[in-house]
Amino acid sequence: MDVFLGIDVGSVSTNLALLDPDLNVVYDLYFRTSGRPIDAVQRAVSAAGTSLPPRSRVLAAGATGSARRLAGELIGADVVKNEITAHSVSAIHFEPDVKTLIEIGGQDSKIVIIRDQVAVDFAMNTICAAGTGSFLDQQANRLSVPIEEFGGLALKSTAPVRIAGRCTVFAETDMIHKQQVGHKVEDIVAGLCRALVRNYLGNVAKGKEILAPVVFQGGVAANAGIRMVLSEELKTEVVVPEKFGVMGAIGAALLASEWHEETRSGSRFRGFEIGKVLYRTTSFECRECPNLCEVIEVLMNDAKIAGWGDRCGRYQAQKSGTPGSEPPPCEECVEREESLAR
């Protein structure tokens, strides 16, 4: 079987999708990153390999997510794109008429304005995680409610309480107060869902022209309470794709298929056996110039395969070698030394 592979590695979850040449999803998975992105990527790719018939071939691979650069180097991705692009492509693929894309993930939330199948504007949350999946996870744990039951519990509420949702600290303090004065758990959960939607619409989506069809994707789309409140606030039905949790990975696979169609080149994909490869990262502060860049290097079986974090590009240019080998001269440093000498 020939497939296109897409992987989306975020702070909370790692998602993978395989598409056949007709761009149908033939395999997908969603599991927790658990703070170990390298291990998560290796597990995901290995699991995908076992799901395919023998001698299957990856025509092209794509990576996205907050750890897209790292994931791209680990798997040998042909395309590495940001989440805005990947989620937009997947939303348009499943809902060609989409005009507004709402995506709420583990660490961030975003809105993309789409017109005529082109993303024309977008916005993301900035410094606060009050409207994200990790925030819901924390509060569900504090209330001793399984996150899978969170949305359903919210739907049982008959008198949702009002919770300050602009800040994670204030929201948690408000929830504790509501519990102490005797409000029911389902009313608190419903209030939290409403607070999250208010926070999203008042901050991330502020000033944006939200038109239907509205597509809602990302892990938080599993929450029936959030879906209901969004529909009420926007006064329109919110479309939730069947594969809402892995849409970023599907978008990365679709972008890989476009790359393959345009280039007809062989893929850089390293194979489904990367789970058996020893990967590790090292980091250090470069002191060759006043920038003091924090440099990350990725090693595969103790050979460097990538590096980034440097403003001048000296470590990025060194794509292979061994740890500790001398990188090429820093152009910025050379210019500075020449200037001082003059």
Task: Tell me about this structure.
Strand 1 (2-9) and strand 2 form a beta hairpin. With 342 residues, the chain is an alpha/beta fold. It is globular. It has 3 domains: 2-89 and 247-274, ATPase, nucleotide binding domain (Nucleotidyltransferase, domain 5, 2-Layer Sandwich); 96-240, ATPase, nucleotide binding domain (Nucleotidyltransferase, domain 5), CATH 3.30.420; 278-341, no CATH class. Helix content is 37%, strand content 23%. The chain has 10 helices and 13 strands. The strands form 3 sheets. It has a 5-stranded mixed β-sheet with strand order 3-2-1-4-5, with helices on both faces. The chain has a 5-stranded mixed β-sheet with strand order 8-7-6-9-10. Helix 5 (147-155) crosses helix 8 (224-234) and helix 7 (185-204) packs across helix 8. Mean pLDDT is 86; it is low at 320-326.
In the CATH hierarchy, the architecture of the largest domain is 2-Layer Sandwich
SS-derived structural category: alpha/beta
Mean pLDDT rating: 86
Give the total of domains.
3
Q: Output the strand order for the largest sheet.
A: 3-2-1-4-5
The DSSP helix count reads 10
Largest beta-sheet details: 5 strands, mixed
Strand content: 15-25%
CATH class of the largest domain: Alpha Beta
3D shape: globular
Total beta-strand segments: 13
Percentage of helical residues? 25-40%
Radius of gyration: 22 Å
What is the name of the CATH topology of the largest domain?
A: Nucleotidyltransferase, domain 5
Instruction: Tell me the name of the CATH homologous superfamily of the largest domain.
Output: ATPase, nucleotide binding domain
Low-pLDDT ranges: 320-326
State the order of secondary-structure elements, H for helix, E for strand.
Answer: EEEHEHEHEEEHHHHEHEHEEEH
